[in-house]
Amino acid sequence: MNELDRLVNACLLAGYTGAEPPSWVHSALAEGLAGVTLFPSNLDGGRQAVLRHTRALRRTAPDALIALDEEGGDVTRLDYETGSAYPGNLALGEIDDLALTSGVAAAIAADLKACGVNLNLAPSIDVNSDPDNPIIGVRSFGARPDLVAAHGAAFIESMQDGGVSVCAKHFPGHGATVTDPHQSLPIVDCSVSVFRERELAPFVSAIKAGVHAMMTAHVLYPALDPDNPATLSRRLLHDLVREELGYNGVLLSSAIAIEAGQGNPDIGAVAVRAFQAGSDLLLLGPTDGPELVDAIRTSVTEAVRAGTLSIETLETAAARVSTLRAQAAPRDLGLEAARRALRVDGPVTLTAPAVVVELRAGGNALGEAHWSLADRLTELGAAQSTVLVSEGDPVDLPSADPVVLVVRDAYRTPWQAAWVAEALAARPDTIVVAVGMPDDVTPQVKASIRTYGAGAVNIEAAAERLSGRNLGGAS
Description:
The protein has helices at residues 3-9, 23-30, 46-60, 89-95, 98-114, 145-161, 192-197, 200-208, 234-244, 256-260, 267-277, 289-306, 311-328, 333-341, 373-379, 414-426, 456-467, and strands at 12-14, 35-37, 65-68, 119-120, 165-171, 213-216, 250-252, 282-283, 343-345, 354-360, 383-389, 403-408, 431-434, 447-450. Strand 10, helix 15 (373-379) and strand 11 form a beta-alpha-beta unit. The chain has an 8-stranded parallel β-sheet with strand order 7-6-5-4-3-2-1-8, sandwiched between helices. A 6-stranded mixed β-sheet has the order 9-14-13-12-10-11, with helices on one face. It is an alpha/beta fold and 475 residues long. The chain contains 17 helices and 14 strands. Helix content is 40%, strand content 12%.
């Protein structure tokens, strides 16, 4: 993959269907894809399904953006099968208690973090000025700009303080329309002064609150740009948001398939227009698939070659997305602690896939959990073969391939201690990984990792050091 393709990947938020990430998503993440959005089609199984997806995705890209729509109330993904555990925006606006709104946002942030989600496509800070609106309604805090602005800012600040990045939506406002953008192009035919007093106020407040991202809307404001909906409008995205309001966070497009459905079936061309207008990150739907990603890259390459889209525009967009990924990077306290507990002596980073040998002591009355460094290294492609040693098995190690010997309290079991000593005599360069008491690392050992436990995070930390990769997010 060339650098231009990687640059485009860095500006795409993909989607997919099914109960697990498909292989093309893993490949795209390895080639710089910014992240994915989880949709209802991924959520058979509730919160456990969300966690299953996020764990799988983060094994490939620890700092990927993993987004979903968790507004509370009517729009929930964590509780898609049962209904939300939290009231939505309209109820919170009716109560009008900013501390309560902050508390709800903090609680949702904690739920999202527990499921591995780091970007919430919420809140809706549209002013629902038309009660016949079919797309916003109870998703809005209300019909008063000042109320929506205040509660939107409280929600944003609390959620981001809770460690989850926020993408406020739908700029420049989707509350004064009676049209569903999935059916036809919504038009808000108001004056510039009404727009500034009514629609714009919550977004100004969101920017002041430090919102990490804002989603643009598929809506036309003739008084502001008579020719282009907001997602494709440079007047709105660049002139107003960047130049006038001074916002430098990420602008996430609404699903560009919606834009394409309004007269331009060439989604690649729509993607180019979105970048030209000022979008940094393009939202793709669950059924768009790898073919669309390829089509977007092709269209962008053609536009760059034709001089209608500059490399600098893409580089600026990718830099903003990179900043968002850093802001949203999951902080895994357990893994951070496991990393800090590691004690390493000698050369332990593998230069080639290893033969991984595991000796396991018998269990005890505590009912110890399953562990296997061999399994994890195999998943990472860092193990060419694995051996589980039982009592009576001979010491039969390769003469040249790297050997990783994983032991847990072998020093307390005579046959295991003797097996380890014979293995080290045959291959003094064996890397010993002690996942129990550190006494397994004897003076005979030349290279070792001591984890001080066999918990999943201890195993993960050891796998990081052996493979030379950071596997589990920032530390």
